Amino acid sequence: MLFQIRYKGDGHDRKQAEIFIDKNTGDDIEEYAVVLNSENKLIGHIVFHEWYAPFKTWEIGWVFNNSYHNKGYATEAAKAVLKYAFEDLKLKIGRIYMTIFLKKKL
């Protein structure tokens, strides 16, 4: 199962966690929770959804707790989601975009 979430101690209150779960269960999941198995802790989420259907364009992005940056977790999650998209769902994707939002000015 690719989806798991906890509401205690992960930055989500109970209501936010319930909304996230309701929105991302079933056949139309766009945001996948990323759980660090060794700690059984939600550390972020990855987004993957169709962005522009005529060109089979999809978007991928992620948000992680700052404590888990630069440890390869986003790369691992992105590889897992893309493998799932191509191998399990057999999606026909023309291109994939990733948008980066920076907190600090360059």
Automatic annotation (TrEMBL):
Transferase recorded as keyword: yes
UniProt GO molecular function: acyltransferase activity, transferring groups other than amino-acyl groups
Gene3D superfamilies on file: 3.40.630.30
InterPro entries named among the record's database cross-references: Acyl_CoA_acyltransferase, GNAT_dom, N-acetyltransferase
This protein's UniProt keywords: Transferase
Pfam families linked to this entry: Acetyltransf_3 (PF13302)
Source taxon at top rank: Bacteria
Domain annotation N-acetyltransferase: ranges: 1-106
The keyword Isomerase belongs to this UniProt entry's keyword annotation: no
PANTHER family according to UniProt: GNAT FAMILY, PUTATIVE (AFU_ORTHOLOGUE AFUA_3G00765)-RELATED-RELATED (PTHR43792), RIBOSOMAL-PROTEIN-SERINE ACETYLTRANSFERASE (PTHR43792:SF5)
Name of the molecule in the record: GNAT family N-acetyltransferase
UniProt organism field: Inconstantimicrobium porci
Lineage, uppermost ranks: Bacteria, Bacillati, Bacillota, Clostridia, Eubacteriales
